[in-house]
Amino acid sequence: MERNIAKPSGMTAFILIWIGQIVSVLASSMSQFALTIWMYQQTESATAMGLLQVFFITPFLLMSPIAGVMVDRYNRKLMMMVSDLVAVIATGGVFILFASGRLEFWHLYIAAALNGIGNTFQWPAYSAAISTMIPKEQLGRANGLMSLIEAGPGVVAPLLAGALLPVISLTGILAVDVITFFFAVGALAFVHVPQPAQTEEGRKSQGSLLKEAGYGFRYIFSRPSLLGLQLIFFFGNLFAGIGNTVLAPMVLARTGQDSLIFGTVQAAGAAGAVLGGILMSAWGGFRRRVHGVLGGWIYAGILGTSILGLKFGLPVWLVGMVLGAPIVTALINGSNQAIWQSKVAPDLQGRVFSARRLIAWFTNPISPIIGGTLADFVLEPAMQSQGTLPNTFGWLVGTGPGAGMGLLLVLCGLGMSLVGLAGYFVPVVRNAEDLLADQDQTVGQFNTAPAD
Q1: Which domains, and CATH codes, for the chain?
Q2: In DSSP terms, which residues pair with 445 in a beta bridge?
Q3: Three-state SS at 314
Q4: What is the DSSP track for 97-115?
Q5: Per-residue pLDDT of the chain (452 residues; tens, 9 = 90+)
């Protein structure tokens, strides 16, 4: 007689998935670190390396609306597995090519594009699945744990990869990466991920692929509170992206290209992000989550970005990186994620979340261009000893190499804080949680899709 063994569900299932993902992401971060070194050895070109991000982000931007439709139409656990398997194909191909001595740097562009496609499906699928697995009161903690997947490997991966490279070489690190992908897929296969019940609005939104792909944007633009929250992230990300563009060159310019100091600053930022994820996981954020979003942007701008541009060097950089933006990022993203997961019906979240991220990430290709142009052609020349601005801002950011980029960081931080402050003056944003009813109270349910 067959026995039906119940699969883990709820928070237990979420923790198992989380463990599988963090192990896989750690291995992928090790591969990325090792491949970065290998690619620089092959090309000695910053432009060639920068193109990796272009090849990653372009398919993401192009395919996000379609990925959202797929996540809502089909089994979400299957979509999560597909995203992991696409990553296996990309990394496995790099592994085979390197092991056979045929890997060339342009192959990594193809791998980056495949990883971008996989990530396009992964984020909306995971975000939407969490809202069906976890009670809404626990969403803040769950999203805090998810932020650790992004932040944690940044601390450990370079150390592990640096220690393992001489022992098992790049071939071994790539092999470990491939194996851990199957570990992540196995964790998914082992647990129960509920499918969302179909709502009346979800039924009405059904149609052609193009109609459903545009639905997420129509949904957001028809709800001023959600659109307002997303515009907070659009403009906040614009200022943050400009600041991030000039941070590394500013540190290198002010330290005479001291790689040890630069590495210390990067490690401090990763440690701050991990600490923020741990705090968010334990605390869960403000009960009124909009304060986590708006207050977080204000805090991140002042203590996380503006402070980095000041003239005082490493001690202030460490404070800004550990106690500034990285530590509060989990609060900002986790609070915002919890609002959307609570207010958007689960069977709509794939399309809506894909559209939401596309709006927020639309600044990614723009920020480096603005930041680089302002730094190289405007502020850096103006902040040299013979420039036009030292008498005005020299007391704040100093003069000489890096001072113009420091001034740009100060201005970007103020911009980020003003974005958060502006949200408090816009009622549809400030009162978003009151104006938007919870998704489990407002929509009629028709049928429950089969579980996995």
Answers
A1: 8-190 (1.20.1250.20), 210-439 (1.20.1250.20)
A2: 199
A3: helix
A4: HHHTT---TTHHHHHHHHH
A5: 444 567 888 888 889 999 999 899 889 888 887 887 788 678 765 556 667 777 887 887 888 888 889 988 888 888 888 888 898 999 999 999 999 999 998 999 999 899 888 888 887 888 888 888 888 778 888 888 887 887 777 677 777 877 888 888 999 999 999 999 999 999 998 898 888 888 888 887 888 888 888 999 999 999 999 999 999 999 999 999 889 888 888 888 898 877 678 778 877 888 888 888 888 888 888 999 999 999 999 999 998 899 999 998 899 999 998 888 778 988 999 899 999 999 999 889 999 988 998 888 888 778 878 888 888 888 989 998 777 788 888 899 988 888 999 999 999 999 999 999 999 999 999 999 999 988 765 444 433 333 34
Burial of 307 (0-12, 13-18, 19+ CB in 10 A): buried
Please check whether residue 115 is in contact with residue 87, taking contact to mean a CB–CB distance below 8 angstroms.
yes
Q: 135: how many CB neighbours lie within 10 A of its CB?
A: 10
- Would you say how long the chain is, in residues? 452
Cα–Cα distance measured from residue 92 to residue 82, given in angstroms and rounded to the nearest whole number: 15
Nearest Cα to Cα of residue 203 among 409, 439, 386, 443 = 443
Q: Hey, what amino acid is at 349?
A: Q
Is 342 within 8 Å of 438 (Cβ atoms)? yes
End-to-end alpha carbon distance in the chain: 22
Reading the block at residue 80, the tokens are 């999560």
Q: At what angle do helices 224-254 and 349-361 cross, to 10 degrees?
A: 40
Q: What are 104's two structure tokens?
A: 């060339």
